[in-house]
Amino acid sequence: MSVTPDQSKKVGVGVSPSPSPFLTPRPERRRRTLEWNPNRQDKDKEVNVQVLLRCRPLSDDEQRLNVQKVISCNEHKREVTVLQSLNNKQVDRVFTFDRVFGPKSQQKSIYDQAISPIVNEVLDGFNCTVFAYGQTGTGKTYTMEGGMRNKSGNLPAEAGVIPRAVRHIFETLEAQNADYSVKVTFLEIYNEEITDLLAPDDNPRTAEDRQRKSISLMEDGKGCVIVRGLEEEAVYNVNEIYTVLERGSAKRRTADTLLNKRSSRSHSVFSITVHIKEATVGDEELIKCGKINLVDLAGSENISRSGAREGRAREAGEINKSLLTLGRVINALVEHSTHIPYRDSKLTRLLRDSLGGKTKTCIIATISPTAQCMEETLSTLDYACRAKNIKNKPEANQKMSKAVLLRDLYSEIERMKEEVRAAREKNGVYIPRERFVQEEAEKKARIEKIEQLENDLNLTEKQAESFRELYLSEQEQKLDLQSELKACKISLETSNKALLDLQEKYQVAITTLKEKELIISKMLFSENLLIGRAKELRTDLQNASEEMNSLYEKLGKAAQVLDSKIKKITETYSSGVSALKELANMLKTKASSDLEQINAKVLSQTVAVEKFLVTAVMEANEVIQDIQYSLDEQKQLLAFSTRQQEEVLQRSLISTQVISKATGNFFDDLHDRACQVMRSLEESQIQRVHQLVNFEKMFKEEAAKEEKQAMEKIAVILATLTSKKASIVSKASTNIQDTSKQDNTRLQKEMFVIQQVATDAGKELSEYFGKVESNFMTDTFSAAESHAIMENCLQECSERVGNSRKQWEKAQLAINTLNQNSVAKIEATVKENISANHSAHEEFVSTSSHVDADFNAIASDTLSCVNASLMLDHEKTKEIDSMATLCLDQLKSVQDKHGEGVSTIRNEAEKRLVKDYLVDKHSGGTKKRVIAVPTVESIEEMRSSIEVTEDCISDNKSKRSQMESKTPGPRTPFADVN
Ligand SMILES: Nc1ncnc2c1ncn2[C@@H]1O[C@H](COP(=O)(O)OP(=O)(O)OP(=O)(O)O)[C@@H](O)[C@H]1O
């Protein structure tokens, strides 16, 4: 601290005083005495401000009230613990300091441990400062002053830092037997006014007088602060200092508050300056100078808690303000700020050199142990902790040569002598005219300057106020704009997200659409292929069907022909049989006498019939085999058709599988493309984020720039800028919103259309697949069903053919048995009738002429009938042959054989009939004509077997027509598409 008294004041001298010893030396002055400076190596050494912590004991009242203690001091560990509980949880806070003194610590131990070394530094030529800081009522004054002296003149136990330091200094100097001088100053800062507590007290009673006597701080232009008009008192022993101290302390403003009955309402600074003559170097005598400032700060206080009222409230406000400035200075020093706000209060201006300067500094932080003061205690502890980080560069004051000191002192004496002389001559205060004029001019100029400065100050204050208001409103606007910007950003982000989502969906939909189009085109292509294939198959099927139809037609015709042929045969048979019957009847009636011949003829005829039947059965078997062969062929044809259909269906299945595979590939592609789209969207998102960051940065820079301009151009430009900014932001926001809305609407429409298209396509596709599947299933099922029906039909046909064969065989047996029985009966009858014939022979001969005529007539009739019948048969055979040529080869051969068989029978019968007729004629009617004809019963049996065969054939026909109707037409799974 460079608290330097005004040099115009008179001071007592131990060693002759001069202005120089009281000024902090400047670098240029140091250069002159550099070679004498023993502390050169210490110059650049940084030393932290030393911070001690003292916790006072509980007062009597507090003990009586049993107040809770929340502070625990560990002097050994140098730690202070604040015991805190939060939500029933112990959350203690621990602070560490250079030294910690608990409630039981004594004044002496504090001094000996912490302050004594500092005083020694002072005696070594350093400037040092000790100041007490803490909440009101925590023992700052007690620590700094304590009890001064007792009646015996000794130091009492409660003596504080100041009396002990004073005693220490004198004792040390006396012990060294040194030439020295000790000067003290004592000032207080009350409501930002400095008062000299040692100034002669003309009228000390009123505050106004004291106000009048307030002294000001000035800078000497070299970085030192001068307290103009501060009384510097020389003291020669401890008691004098005590007297001075007591006098000054008595003047300090105190008040009764809730927390302290004698609360100091001002900051006090007690300074001791020591000049010591040192050992000589050659002829030169050196003087070293050290100074200690002992500062008792007013207590920081919570106004409501300390009970400060009315005038006291302003007092407390001022105290807190200067302490706040002290805190800001400490913070700025700790944070190495470029600007340290020393000038913001008188306290910090005075302590400038002690905080971050060349002075060694010690802070004693005082706290109360009670729970009710915990808030302030924590604040003090934080404050003190921060102060630990302040770094000073202590420098010993340079020693001065005695000659220089004397020269300065002599010139000062001369000046003072002149003043004394002038005063004597004028019987008043005299100063030389030149100096008076000069001082008056200076005074006038100073007053004018002060007025101007005051005006400037007022103006500046007003401006500052308006700027402050402007700044505040600007800040508010800025906050509003920031919040708007934030909201805008959020909405922009939301819109961007929505937009991105829509874009993503849009892209996905477009890709899906494209892929679907691709699938559809592929499907159309494959469908066309299938349709082509189906057409081919249809043509094949149609051909097959036509072939089958023609086959069926041929078979039908053949069957019809066979049918008609059989009918004709039957008719022929029946007509032949009836003719034969008539003939037999005629022969029976007309040739009863020729029974033996008839019997023989019957036997031979029976054999012939047997032969005929065997032949007929064989022929029937052959016909049946041919039918079986035809059926087998149909079976094969059907199996082939079924296989073809199965192959078609198989190919359809493979095509569907190919389509399914293509669809799978499409979905894979879709996935890949979606990934690509996602990546590109992420990139675009990053770009947007970058753009937003750049926009934000630009906006901030622009805002800062505009803010600066607004500060310079005051409200108008600011208003314009604000409106401009607002309009820009609102415009940008509106534009973004409009664009976003338009995009949203457009995208929503497109999305709707795409969704519809996608849904329709999906539906069509699924329907299409459903149809294909159902067609496939139906076709497969109906093909299998048809196959089964065909097989059943064919099986039934085979069975019926087998039955027919058995019936034919049965018929043959029956005819044989019948023939044998008939032959036996005829033989018996013939034997019986032989005798009767013999007796009737005579009668027969007589009537033979008549009978012969009748016989001839009948025979000719019969012959003509037979001829006609033969002719008919021949025609029919021809007809059958011509029709048989139209039928399949197997039927033709059957017909041929059948025709041949029939004609053979007819020829045989005709030949025999003619032969018998001729024999009979040549024998003169003696030989009886015997015509072997089948019996009525055997013919009926044959007819019935033929009917069974006919039934079987017609049944086969109906089955075939059923099969035709059930056989699936030439269809394709894509018939619907056609
Ligand atoms: N360590 C201590 N031992 C005994 N008493 C103490 C101690 N510290 C303070 N006291 C007593 O507490 C009271 C208040 O102390 P003091 O006036 O020194 O506080 P202060 O911090 O200077 O308060 P203010 O800031 O209001 O001036 C005094 O009565 C003082 O004697």
Q: Give the assembly state of these chains.
A: single chain
The tally of helices reads 17
| Inertia-based shape | rod-shaped
Poorly predicted segments: 1-42, 925-935, 966-978
How much of the polypeptide forms β-strand, as a percent range?
Answer: 5-15%
Task: List cofactors, ions and other ligands.
Answer: adenosine-5'-triphosphate
N-to-C terminal Cα separation, in Å? 111 Å
The biggest sheet amounts to: 10 strands, mixed
- Assign the CATH superfamily of one domain: Kinesin motor domain
How many beta-strand runs? 22
CATH topology of one domain: Kinesin
Structural class, judged by helices and strands? alpha+beta
Helix percent reads 55-70%
Radius of gyration: 74 Å
Q: Output mean pLDDT.
A: 73
Description of the structure:
With 978 residues, the protein is an alpha+beta fold. It has a domain at 46-326 and 362-389: Kinesin motor domain (Kinesin), CATH 3.40.850.10. The chain has 17 helices and 22 strands. It has helices spanning 27-32, 60-64, 107-123, 140-144, 161-176, 207-212, 238-251, 303-306, 311-334, 346-350, 374-387, 402-425, 433-590, 595-846, 848-886, 889-922, 936-966; strands spanning 4-5, 47-48, 50-55, 71-74, 79-82, 85-86, 89-90, 93-96, 99-101, 127-134, 180-190, 193-196, 217-219, 225-227, 233-235, 254-255, 263-264, 267-277, 286-296, 360-367, 391-392, 400-401. Helix 3 (107-123) packs across helix 5 (161-176), helix 13 crosses helix 14 and helix 13 (433-590) packs antiparallel against helix 17 (936-966). It is rod-shaped, with a radius of gyration of 74 Å. The chain binds adenosine-5'-triphosphate. The site of adenosine-5'-triphosphate (ATP) has 18 residues, from helix 4 and strand 17. One of its GO terms (molecular function) is microtubule binding. Residues 406-470, 534-561 form a coiled coil. This is Kinesin-like protein.
